[in-house]
TrEMBL record:
Molecular function GO labels: acyltransferase activity
Domain N-acetyltransferase: 9-171
Signal peptide: none
Enzyme class: transferase
Name of this protein: GNAT family N-acetyltransferase
Keywords from the UniProt entry: Acyltransferase, Transferase
Domain of life: Bacteria
Assigned EC number: 2.3.-.-
Species this chain originates from: Flavobacterium ardleyense
InterPro entries: Acyl_CoA_acyltransferase (IPR016181), GNAT_dom (IPR000182)
Amino acid sequence: MITLKGNSIYLRALEPEDLAFVYRIENDETIWEVSNTQSPYSRFLIRQYLENAHQDIYEAKQLRLAICLNNTLEAVGLIDLFDFDPRNNRAGVGILISNENHRNQGIGGQALELIIQYAFHQLQLHQLYANIGSENEISLQLFTKFGFQIIGTKKDWMKVNNVYKDEMLLQLVNNN
């Protein structure tokens, strides 16, 4: 049986009570570069999103889970499967640890490992991919640690503060 619980974290579905947490993340301009966000989200829109979060991945083509600490139950980040393509058995994966105090503690690694297991065993996906800015060395190290391979560079892909930046395309193929 697949569990979405790690040594110090667990992954859970978003709840209406996560409104303030998701609102804070979606409106944090310091992470808009990695989330491809271009404008703020209203509480109204996020409330609507949370009301529809009950849709399964086959319906919504996305699965967003809260990353929570086992000891305090506090939500400290989000992990997403997006662009879910059941015909070709693939999805994109993205992860964000919202508070810098919780970064570099293995939380992202545990969450990524859990979502990989879920994607390959529960959803029977053949591959996962990630889009990571070429300057985001920590995320590149994290994903390659779990077997993702850099398969390409999207040149001048993102315009950030009037500067074009490259984005790396990483892929993990399930050969089992």
